[in-house]
Amino acid sequence: MDFDFSPEEDAFRARVQSFLDAHLPSEFDARDPDFLKQWNRALGEAGWLGFAWPKEAGGGGATIIEQFILKEEMSARRAPPLGSDFMGLTWVGPALIEHGSDEQKQQFLPELLAGESCWCTGYSEPGAGSDLASLSTRAERDGDDYVVNGQKIWTTLAHVAKYIFMLVRTESSSRYGGITCVLIPMDSPGIEIQPIPNLSGEVSFNQVFFKDVRVPVASRLGKEGEGWRVVVGALANERSGISEATEKLRHIEDLEELARKVMRGGRPAVEDPEVRRKLASFRTRIAAMRLTGMRHLTNQLQGRRPSSETSINKLLRGQLEIEMDAFAMGLLGTQAQTQGRWQYLSLSYHGTVIGGGTPNIQRNIIAERILGLPKD
Ligand SMILES: Cc1cc2nc3c(=O)[nH]c(=O)nc-3n(C[C@H](O)[C@H](O)[C@H](O)COP(=O)(O)OP(=O)(O)OC[C@H]3O[C@@H](n4cnc5c(N)ncnc54)[C@H](O)[C@@H]3O)c2cc1C
Asked: Is the shortest distance between the CB of 361 and ligand 1 below 6 Å?
């Protein structure tokens, strides 16, 4: 593993910095839809959505290292992440590039690259979460269509998404081989969406019901019965996206700032050796996450597919977030009641830890697929 950037990569970093100087206001509201629309358009025009996708797919053909630099610089300025269509860009697009027909690529990729689509992901069901292969939403063939019946749950952004990237059961006798991936417009007749408010009162996920929803067979991604293959790659991409260490660097900076402001025994909390030790341990773990992320990048540069290794950072990040937030709440003491931001984070991280697969499932993956330990 080489930790140095080449002169070309340093020049690219400077280019990104100039773009940010020109397009990112010094103050902005990352939840303002008008600002996000404008920001997405600027990123799309600069060719930075799907920047590392192959040129034939309409992407920038950039190296994965350039993509990493782009994300690092964006995060350093606290810019909203690359595009608001996080799922579309992180796993639906790459899955389309790998498994999609020419028609599907032409239909979906340009919209994605222009920052104009929004995807949601339909894996989980009331009886199928960690054990995803138990899913039972059925798709039965009827002429040139599938007819879909069943229910998905915890579907993030289903209430605003244009399309769903979804797993259905096309055959019941084979657990893995009976699963197929389909791409469905969310305004298809027969789809009903019921939002589920989360712990902090916001709506981010939903229940989605499918009643006799007709889906053209041409909307299937990959072959019938090969949905599991599609989803394994998509999940590795999801976990790698979730695990970005750069974002955690902003989180620790905020925590350090808090420790400078909060007083303990008449002195800033940051002067307490216990507090300093804790902050240093968080920084060390973030540095370890960054190095693990670099190893994942190196693998990709050497042409290997996203692997189970992405589960390491997914696990580390979840534990770190909960601990950092609990530490912030401890520093604030009774003031925590009035510090909306930290309180909000403490309510939302529990969900982030579960989304994309629970910590136990990441431990199982690391034990079985990386360490080669037996299943029982
Ligand atoms: C914020 C958030 C966003 C989400 N977004 C989406 C989305 O967009 N699309 C989507 O399809 N799903 C989404 N999910 C669902 C998520 O993928 C599931 O919640 C997750 O996979 C766990 O499934 P479950 O809730 O059914 O829990 P279960 O699978 O029932 O797990 C319950 C508990 O049992 C443990 N457990 C289960 N099996 C094992 C095992 N083999 N070994 C050890 N322990 C085990 C788990 O770790 C957990 O602690 C989201 C969830 C959250 C919280």
From this structure: yes
Residue to mutate (ligand 1; options 125, 151, 358; most atoms within 8 A of CB): 358
Between CA 90 and CA 88 the distance in angstroms is 6
Give the distance (Å) from ligand 1 centre to CA of residue 357: 5
Report the run of H or E that residue 68 belongs to, with start and end. Answer: helix 64-76
48-105 pLDDT tens trace: 898 889 999 999 999 888 888 898 898 888 888 776 788 999 899 999 999 999 999 9
Name the pTM for this structure: 0.90
CA 131 to the chain's CA centroid: 20
- State whether the beta carbon of 134 lies less than 6 angstroms from ligand 1: no
Residue pair 30/38 in contact (Cβ under 8 Å)? The answer is: no
Catalytic positions, please? 238
Banded model confidence at residue 16, pLDDT cuts 50, 70, 90: very high
Domains of the chain: 7-84 (no CATH), 119-225 (2.40.110.10), 243-370 (1.20.140.10)
Residue nearest to atom 32 of ligand 1 (CA): 130
